[in-house]
Design goal:
Helix content: 40-55%
Largest sheet: 6 strands, mixed
Radius of gyration: 22 Å
Number of strands: 10
Order of helices and strands: HHHEHHHEEEEHHEHEHHEEHHE
Number of helices: 13
Shape: globular
Length: about 375
């Protein structure tokens, strides 16, 4: 990919520095994905910096987050019938990440971003513990009905669980990662399963999922996949959203064992449901979608606008700032310093705070 003049009016020094900074790779024209659609809706300048230029803060980012570990647990459960294999997989993630952290830490025990390595490792293990407990609680409420349903296969050897897909929808290259795709053995209906963790009330979180960009991308791609699939095929019916609230319960000295901790978390979910049955902490919502719902004029217009943003020359006037996006829950946007400063200071600022890292280069298939 070629480099280009990125900052209009930024001066030749800034442009020359940027070309050196990205190692000659220049900017990207990435496939459309739901997170990028959300970022563009929030702030076009943020979209430019994160999606097109790949600018990331120079700080430690844990590879296996609580959410990704939770997804991995459900992945292994659905393809293997037990959470035990998933628990072993996420614990292996924690061990590998801990070794990586030790290698990154300096003699003072601090990571490159200034975080204390011991604290980060402890939080990582706590995230793993909570992910396991949440998965146990979810399966206790909504066990997968293996007798009536099955995970769809996109080849005889590969199942549609935590699988990444590149597709073209109405002329636009898109990328989605399906949490899981299942088929009813009796009716042949195919449903996309979307697992979500949230700190919000699940009823509130689920309210807009039926028409969210991710849901519409999921169904648009899956319709095409099923049409061209050499696997088992089927008729796409819609999306099943599984939403679970994340509690703030840590594994600690009051727990006689890890099993006791898991039981304590499960009891919390039961208590919360009993307090208010209309606002359960674990919610399963089924949305049936027609072809008109998926490829609606609203969605296609948004997709066309998103495609344009992914292909436009990365010049500042084409990607205006949105002042309402500068702070989120009182935390500043990582690119706020760039937006506040003159381009003459960008080389120093970018060298000090940022690195170029594209999400597409870091993605891989889940371990099985």
């Amino acid at each position: 990919m070629s480099s280009s003049r990125v900052w209009q009016g930024g001066g030749d020094g800034a442009v020359a520095w940027f070309k050196r900074y990205v190692g000659g790779k220049g900017y990207r024209n990435p496939p459309v994905r739901s997170t990028a659609m959300g970022t563009l809706d929030t702030c076009a300048r943020m979209f430019l910096y994160s999606e097109r230029l790949g600018l990331r803060l120079k700080s430690y980012e844990s590879a296996p987050s609580r959410g990704s570990m939770y997804h991995s647990l459900l992945h292994h459960y659905r393809i293997g019938g037990s959470l035990a294999r998933g628990q072993a997989a996420v614990q292996a993630f924690v061990v590998e990440e801990s070794l990586r952290l030790k290698g990154l830490a300096g003699p003072d025990g601090l990571l490159p971003g200034g975080q204390d390595v011991a604290t980060v490792m402890s939080n990582l293990q706590q995230d793993c513990n909570l992910a396991v407990a949440m998965a146990e609680a979810f399966v206790g409420v909504y066990p997968f009905p293996f007798e009536a349903w099955e995970v769809v296969r996109y080849t005889p050897e590969k199942v549609m669980s935590e699988v990444l897909y590149d597709w073209v929808v109405d002329g636009t290259p898109v990328r989605v990662r399906f949490d899981c795709v299942v088929r009813n053995k009796t009716t042949g209906e195919v449903w996309v399963v979307d697992d979500k963790t949230t700190s919000l009330d699940p009823v509130v979180r689920a309210a807009s999922l039926s028409f969210g960009w991710q849901t519409l991308l999921y169904t648009a791609v899956m319709r095409g996949v099923l049409t061209e699939s050499s696997g088992e095929g089927g008729t796409l019916a819609g999306v099943c959203h599984n939403v679970i609230r994340t509690p703030t319960i840590r594994y600690c000295g009051k727990d006689a064992s890890f099993e006791a901790y898991v039981n304590r978390v499960s009891q919390w979910y039961r208590d919360e449901r009993e307090k208010n049955p209309a606002r359960p902490p674990i919610l399963q919502s089924w949305t049936r979608l027609t072809a008109d719902d998926v490829l609606s004029p609203e969605f296609l217009r948004k997709l066309k606008a998103q495609h344009k943003a992914h292909r436009s020359l990365p010049r500042l006037p084409l990607f205006p700032r949105n002042e309402k996006a500068c702070f989120h829950y009182n935390r500043p946007c990582p690119y706020l310093d760039l937006c506040q400063s003159d381009s003459s200071g960008w080389p120093r600022l970018l060298d000090a705070k940022f690195e170029v890292r594209f999400r597409e280069d870091e993605e891989d298939e889940p371990r099985e």
